[in-house]
């Protein structure tokens, strides 16, 4: 029987929904953990899903870690995981530059060491990681030396983001042939205890504003991230479930790609947010209404243990 959207996933509906899919894509921050604190029961859910024959993937817009670093973090929290099942924004961005942009040249990178590593793994040289303190006067900033081999400005999470980095990106992007690519547009990163810090979306918005153009992004809700998983593992979209805590990235990605969607209320978005989209009557907002929601993915446990 068809059910209406935004239904609490409970009772027999859990098994019914799990039976209808072969692969489950999990967002990480706000679904499996908050900061360095695992969501209680999350690793049991993942491990039991795998044991029952489901393919499980980890799909995160967070660009602060390589695939290997994510696999290590998951393992340390008790999750069974292969590095190849992790699709982080740093890795997907490197795949995008290599396979879609076919970039010939260097990258000016506003991002982390993890992003540097993923770029190097596919043979792309980069400059820019680390602090970039300001010196001189405004005219010096406008004439800051540029590397003529740089063909793209790439923006991800950068804890050293500064005015000088913004300025350097601006100067590179004065060249209309220089690409502007970002990992994602998430504006906040949820942490334990109800806390949050500004996300990559805030940094990317600053660069876009300075450059007066919009970046191409590879993270959710862009279908590129799903395409990376689907092409490597031969997924069928109608046999996939996307699980996330954000309506505007995770759930929208699922809708964009024809996946079933499940909102976990352990992170950013609330049921009220989803219902507001549902009653808006706006076609774009309806795409952000999940099929199902749970208080936590631990709600799936009884169906998996039974
Ligand atoms: Mg999340």
TrEMBL record:
<comment type="similarity">
    <text>Belongs to the HAD-like hydrolase superfamily. CbbY/CbbZ/Gph/YieH family.</text>
</comment>
<keyword id="KW-0119">Carbohydrate metabolism</keyword>
<dbReference type="Pfam" id="PF13242">
    <property type="entry name" value="Hydrolase_like"/>
</dbReference>
<dbReference type="Pfam" id="PF13344">
    <property type="entry name" value="Hydrolase_6"/>
</dbReference>
<dbReference type="InterPro" id="IPR006349">
    <property type="entry name" value="PGP_euk"/>
</dbReference>
<feature type="binding site">
    <location>
        <position position="245"/>
    </location>
    <ligand>
        <name>Mg(2+)</name>
    </ligand>
</feature>
<feature type="binding site">
    <location>
        <position position="29"/>
    </location>
    <ligand>
        <name>Mg(2+)</name>
    </ligand>
</feature>
<comment type="function">
    <text>Glycerol-3-phosphate phosphatase hydrolyzing glycerol-3-phosphate into glycerol. Thereby, regulates the cellular levels of glycerol-3-phosphate a metabolic intermediate of glucose, lipid and energy metabolism. Was also shown to have a 2-phosphoglycolate phosphatase activity and a tyrosine-protein phosphatase activity. However, their physiological relevance is unclear. In vitro, also has a phosphatase activity toward ADP, ATP, GDP and GTP.</text>
</comment>
<dbReference type="GO" id="GO:0004725">
    <property type="term" value="F:protein tyrosine phosphatase activity"/>
</dbReference>
<feature type="binding site">
    <location>
        <position position="27"/>
    </location>
    <ligand>
        <name>Mg(2+)</name>
    </ligand>
</feature>
<dbReference type="GO" id="GO:0046872">
    <property type="term" value="F:metal ion binding"/>
</dbReference>
<dbReference type="GO" id="GO:0043136">
    <property type="term" value="F:sn-glycerol 3-phosphatase activity"/>
</dbReference>
<protein>
    <recommendedName>
        <fullName>Glycerol-3-phosphate phosphatase</fullName>
        <ecNumber>3.1.3.21</ecNumber>
        <ecNumber>3.1.3.48</ecNumber>
    </recommendedName>
</protein>
<feature type="active site" description="Proton donor">
    <location>
        <position position="27"/>
    </location>
</feature>
<dbReference type="GO" id="GO:0006114">
    <property type="term" value="P:glycerol biosynthetic process"/>
</dbReference>
<dbReference type="InterPro" id="IPR006357">
    <property type="entry name" value="HAD-SF_hydro_IIA"/>
</dbReference>
<dbReference type="GO" id="GO:0006650">
    <property type="term" value="P:glycerophospholipid metabolic process"/>
</dbReference>
<dbReference type="InterPro" id="IPR023214">
    <property type="entry name" value="HAD_sf"/>
</dbReference>
<dbReference type="InterPro" id="IPR036412">
    <property type="entry name" value="HAD-like_sf"/>
</dbReference>
<feature type="active site" description="Proton donor">
    <location>
        <position position="29"/>
    </location>
</feature>
<comment type="subunit">
    <text>Homodimer.</text>
</comment>
<keyword id="KW-0378">Hydrolase</keyword>
<feature type="binding site">
    <location>
        <position position="220"/>
    </location>
    <ligand>
        <name>substrate</name>
    </ligand>
</feature>
<keyword id="KW-0460">Magnesium</keyword>
<keyword id="KW-0479">Metal-binding</keyword>
């Amino acid at each position: 029987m068809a059910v209406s959207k935004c239904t609490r996933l409970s009772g027999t509906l859990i098994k019914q929904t799990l039976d209808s899919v072969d692969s489950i894509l999990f967002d990480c921050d706000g679904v499996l953990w908050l900061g360095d604190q695992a969501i209680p029961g999350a690793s049991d859910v993942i491990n039991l899903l795998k044991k029952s024959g489901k393919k499980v993937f980890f799909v995160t817009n967070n660009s602060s870690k390589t695939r290997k670093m994510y696999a290590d973090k998951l393992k340390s929290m008790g999750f069974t995981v292969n590095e190849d099942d992790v699709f982080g924004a740093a890795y997907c961005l490197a795949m995008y530059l290599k396979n879609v942009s076919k970039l010939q040249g260097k990258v000016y990178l506003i991002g982390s060491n993890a992003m540097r590593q993923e770029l190097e793994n596919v043979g792309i040289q980069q400059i820019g990681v680390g602090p970039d303190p300001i010196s001189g006067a405004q005219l010096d900033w406008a004439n800051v030396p540029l590397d003529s081999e740089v063909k793209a400005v790439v923006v991800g999470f950068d804890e050293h983001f500064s005015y000088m980095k913004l300025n350097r990106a601006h100067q590179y992007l004065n060249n209309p042939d220089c690409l502007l690519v970002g990992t994602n547009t998430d504006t906040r990163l949820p942490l334990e205890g109800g806390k949050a810090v500004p996300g990559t979306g805030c940094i990317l918005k600053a660069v876009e504003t300075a450059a007066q153009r919009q970046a191409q992004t590879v993270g959710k809700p862009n279908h590129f991230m799903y395409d990376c998983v689907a092409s490597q593992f031969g997924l069928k979209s109608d046999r996939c479930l996307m699980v996330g805590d954000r309506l505007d990235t995770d759930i929208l990605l699922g809708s964009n790609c024809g996946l079933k969607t499940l909102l976990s209320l352990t992170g950013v978005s609330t049921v009220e947010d989803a219902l507001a989209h549902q009653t808006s009557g706006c076609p774009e907002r309806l795409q952000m209404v999940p099929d199902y929601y749970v208080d936590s993915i631990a709600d799936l446990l009884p169906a998996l243990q039974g």
